[in-house]
Amino acid sequence: MSSYLKTLATNPQAVIVYDNINFKDMKRDEVIGNKSEMRSMTTAAVVICPELPPGGLDQSMHDPSKPLYLHDILSGPGISGGDDIGLKITRCLIADAIKTTHPASVKAVFHNSETYPKMPELDKIDANRTAFWQFGAVFEDEGTIDGTYRVHEQIFLRQLGLRAPKDPGDSTPDDFRSRLWLVHGDQLTADRIRSVKSEQTRAKRAFDRRDWLLGVPAWFHIQMNLLLMIVRTHWGPTDYRLHAHHSLRSDITAWNRSYSSRDNVKYHQMKPLVEQGFTARVTALFYTAMRRRGHLPSINDVDPMGCTSAAIKDLTPEQFHALIEDVRTAAFTLDAWQGTQHADIEFRTMCRMLQEIELFLTIAHAVKTGDIGLLRRLVDPLIVVFFGAGQHNYGKEMLFYRWLLSPVNTDELQRAILASGLVNWVGRDTTHKPIDLSLEHLNGSCKIEMKCYKNSTHDVDTIFNRVCLSNSWIRTLREKIEDTFGTENPGKHTNADATLDIFVLARNLFVDGLAEPRNQQQLASLSDVFDSQDIFQVGMDKLAEKVDAFNKHNIRRPKVSDYPDDEADVESEEATGFADASEYIRSLEDEDFEVEL
């Protein structure tokens, strides 16, 4: 294994991913020096990314003296629009929601038509099987700065066997003088890498300076924190007396789900919940548009489900597209987010909820299909919504990611950063996944082994060391056995069919008049209702200040190791001539301007 890792180290298209694995090492019989304790260790893998330049990456491709400019974020298509990509994304997600609830009917509508809304394709990477190899066990905690130093030594010097002479003046070959390594990980990993680089900017030894190392936030942890943001903003009101029909807690109650606390939510529970809630509300909006256009004349026509399906089946493709546009205009525009056309706060809350989930679903689609052009587009709105929701750590990470996708890096390096963040173990068009999620799956083998087989002799260290050494071999062996016997045992989880749950909620929202703005007479009989925060406006208000702070702490002047002082040539909101971000946006506005979420 050691020799194979050293061979992979010479591959110019190799990238690294590592993450900490934390667990409680339980002791049944505790004595002095032998008691239960929390253990923090590190797992890592080397991945070969064919999208990297054949000659590899060079440190000259990265110029950390260039700042991040506010207007680059605000004028990006993910925020300012300026094209029809955002419209196509929204229309496709609306159509897919209706297709989920009424699959046979939608298929009948488009059986002789090729006009079904499709996701735009911007820059898709090839669907090749990703070559990877897991490192041996790293018994260090990368969650600390001291541990990060030791992790780098373990991975790059000991396991990869790269050369780093202790004397900078030595004529011995130095593998860290020119090559640039990309390392993917979660927010903590990327932050610790920046910290050790900051501490070592004046070091004479190339390995210690770490100009060869670029930490990149990975997409699975970005997705997890975006889902956490939706939980934060739309779980429901803290005051139970408020009306809240459009919240995660109301959906949990309606569907009688078992999880009821926002303090201990699980990703695998929240992801289907928000997806099904999105589908149900879009379906209810579609029913409302059908009734408005005379395709669904009676409320009774949505009960039972077959009547609604029959009404949708009778639509022409042109009528279906018109209804999709009605839904988009009602809930997926800037006016819908701000609620400028009505006084129904609860309907505005639903529109904000849908637009936040739309961003989550778009990222999931871009990752699954390997569309790194679409991922690039979504970085800018992620910056705004993370800061707006108070998730400052990931707001800073997305600023850093946006900086990496600016002229600070060459075009080749920018594309390499995006492409190397995805892997494809199966090699199909829709089986890409984030590189950090692939490492989490490998970590799962360790946790399963510890849960099932750990004892006083087969202890944590033995299991961790053995599983890290054998993970890659066992995966390859399993594939060979399955191929030999012609039987595949897929590891994909089979989801329960939630179509009936979705339809019931959609019907109730439609019948109760909650899928359209209510009039003043209806609102007069209501007390206070749940009003979600305008995270987009809050994030925009903070953006200029956050960009300035980022530049002051991350930009390095040419040939100067220290941080820039207050007079550094870094553009701020004053340098652009605008008092704040909102003034800058107004200067870009025209009749077609639309902020996309």
Write the layout of secondary structure elements.
Blueprint: H1 2-9, E1 14-25, E2 37-48, H2 70-74, H3 77-80, H4 85-101, H5 103-109, E3 131-134, H6 145-159, E4 181-185, H7 187-199, H8 206-209, E5 213-217, H9 219-234, H10 248-255, H11 267-292, H12 305-313, H13 317-331, H14 334-338, H15 345-369, H16 372-388, H17 392-404, H18 411-419, E6 422-423, E7 433-434, H19 435-453, H20 460-485, H21 499-511, H22 520-524, H23 535-554, H24 581-588
Parallel strand pairs: 1-4, 4-5
Antiparallel strand pairs: 1-2, 2-3, 6-7
Number of helices: 24
For the record, give the distance between the C-alpha atoms at the N and C termini, rounded to a whole number: 46 Å
- Residue runs with pLDDT of under 50 for 5 or more positions: 560-597
Neighbour order of strands in the largest sheet: 3-2-1-4-5
Domain tally: 2
Report on the architecture of this protein.
This protein is of the alpha/beta class and 597 residues long. The chain has two domains: 2-48 and 126-217 and 421-485; 87-124 and 221-377 and 501-534, no CATH class. It has helices at 2-9, 70-74, 77-80, 85-101, 103-109, 145-159, 187-199, 206-209, 219-234, 248-255, 267-292, 305-313, 317-331, 334-338, 345-369, 372-388, 392-404, 411-419, 435-453, 460-485, 499-511, 520-524, 535-554, 581-588; strands spanning 14-25, 37-48, 131-134, 181-185, 213-217, 422-423, 433-434. The strands form two sheets. The chain has a five-stranded mixed beta sheet, with helices on both faces. Strands 6-7 form a two-stranded antiparallel ribbon. Helix 5 packs parallel to helix 12, helix 11 (267-292) packs across helix 15 (345-369) and helix 11 packs across helix 21. The longest helix has 26 residues, at 267-292. 39% of the residues are buried.
